[in-house]
């Protein structure tokens, strides 16, 4: 008896949700559609959704949003940035070759060097600040050129239009990891890039709360092939995280403009400090990519790196700071300081690391939305402690 009653009540809830419509409630936020499957009203004519791996209304709202922001026709949301990137690589086939920036994100490096070779997909790493080097790495079977600009952690700049021209001449696809800029500051599809990729974990979500990835294409046919791969691999973003990411994207411009403005002030401050050996930030006119970046993006962004003389001095500095989080990742409302030699680039052999400027004294700083004067005052006191460390060691 009680079982019957319960199932009756459940069926009432199910029936009433079929009647559900945003138009009736006037909600201002996209609802979180926690539904794996969707009822079909007609026996032989199915509605827009059938199963949430293939399509979910909350994820759909997010995918349409990123497509529009990037100026594309198709957006796809994945469980992580790396899920978006690795799924997009599956556009390639055995026998294909990739020309890829040597300053690529560590997880992308791992996929390209450890997974793709087993599938018969080869690669060549090149310094992407040098277009001639990229051109000479292209082979007859090169099918993809993979860009990250600005790159991590020394903010190297790649000439996007220059690479697109090379790719068109050689019938290659182009992918660009736009995590550091977001569509607010750089729209690679407008410059002819085929697939834009994001770790939405960073600036797009902005609150260090979720792991998410996005891919966007302008070409509809390519968008369909990518959507097929998204469904085939199934590394989709869930409805709740899709909702969080939509909320994050709503405040992207206010967060990111403030952070980028502060980053420029902090970069200027660090440039003038005697203990700091080098500052990498594309907003400094001394940065080798300054002019190219200014042509293809509308802001230098909110990530900068700087070099202190030694690991011991970097340690004294980090341990004296009060405000920033000391962690991997970037793009949050809280400032995040990281030590690439021990964190993002720990797996890289030491000579490779140092060749790329990733010394033991290098620190990367992702600027949050704290008061910039507080941040600079914090840096100032921590650099004073670090300077004492230098005196003590006598270097
Ligand atoms: C973090 C990051 C990734 C990987 O994204 P996940 O969301 O961590 O999987 C890819 N590219 C860049 C530039 C990143 O910073």
From TrEMBL:
Required cofactor names: pyridoxal 5'-phosphate
UniProt keyword list: Amino-acid biosynthesis, Lyase, Methionine biosynthesis, Pyridoxal phosphate
Transmembrane segments: none
The keyword Lyase is annotated on this UniProt entry: yes
Class in the EC hierarchy, top level: lyase
Pfam family, one: Cys_Met_Meta_PP
Superkingdom of this protein's organism: Bacteria
Catalytic activity, EC: 4.4.1.13
Family the UniProt entry places it in: Belongs to the trans-sulfuration enzymes family.
UniProt xrefs under PANTHER family: CYSTATHIONINE BETA-LYASE, TRANS-SULFURATION ENZYME FAMILY MEMBER
Name the UniProt record assigns to this protein: cysteine-S-conjugate beta-lyase
Organism: Psychrobacillus mangrovi
């Amino acid at each position: 008896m009680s079982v019957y009653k319960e199932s009756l009540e459940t069926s009432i809830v199910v029936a009433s949700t079929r009647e559900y419509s945003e138009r009736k409630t006037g909600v201002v936020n996209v609802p979180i559609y926690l539904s794996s499957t969707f009822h079909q009203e007609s026996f032989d004519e199915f509605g827009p959704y059938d199963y949430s791996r293939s399509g979910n209304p909350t994820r759909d709202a997010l995918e349409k949003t990123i497509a529009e922001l990037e100026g594309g026709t198709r957006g796809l949301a994945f469980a992580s940035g790396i899920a978006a990137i690795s799924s997009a690589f599956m556009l390639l086939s055995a026998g294909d070759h990739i020309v890829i920036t040597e300053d690529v994100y560590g997880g992308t490096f791992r996929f390209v060097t450890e997974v793709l070779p087993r599938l018969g997909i080869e690669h060549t790493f090149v310094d992407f600040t040098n277009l001639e080097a990229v051109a000479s790495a292209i082979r007859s079977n090169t099918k993809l050129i993979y860009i990250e600009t600005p790159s991590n952690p020394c903010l190297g700049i790649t000439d996007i239009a220059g690479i697109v021209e090379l790719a068109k001449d050689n019938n290659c696809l182009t992918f660009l990891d736009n995590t550091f800029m977001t569509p607010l500051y750089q729209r690679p599809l407008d410059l002819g890039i085929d697939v834009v990729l994001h770790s939405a974990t960073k600036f797009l979500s902005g609150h260090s709360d979720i792991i998410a990835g996005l891919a966007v294409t302008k070409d509809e046919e390519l968008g369909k092939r990518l959507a097929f791969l998204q469904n085939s691999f199934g590394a989709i973003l869930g409805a709740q995280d899709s909702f969080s990411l939509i909320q994050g994207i709503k405040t992207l411009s206010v967060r990111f403009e403030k952070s980028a403005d502060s980053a420029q002030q902090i970069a200027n401050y660090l440039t003038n400090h005697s203990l700091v050996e080098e500052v990498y930030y594309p907003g400094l006119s001394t940065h080798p990519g300054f002019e190219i970046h200014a042509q293809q993006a509308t802001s230098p962004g909110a990530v900068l790196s700087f070099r202190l003389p030694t690991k011991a001095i970097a340690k004294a500095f980090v341990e004296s700071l009060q405000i920033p989080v000391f962690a991997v990742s970037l793009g949050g409302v809280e400032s995040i300081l990281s030590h690439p030699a021990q964190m993002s680039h720990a797996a890289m052999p030491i000579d490779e690391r140092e060749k790329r400027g990733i010394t033991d004294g290098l620190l990367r700083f992702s600027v949050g939305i704290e008061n910039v004067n507080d941040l600079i005052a914090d840096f100032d006191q921590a650099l004073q402690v670090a300077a004492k460390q230098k005196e003590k060691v006598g270097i």
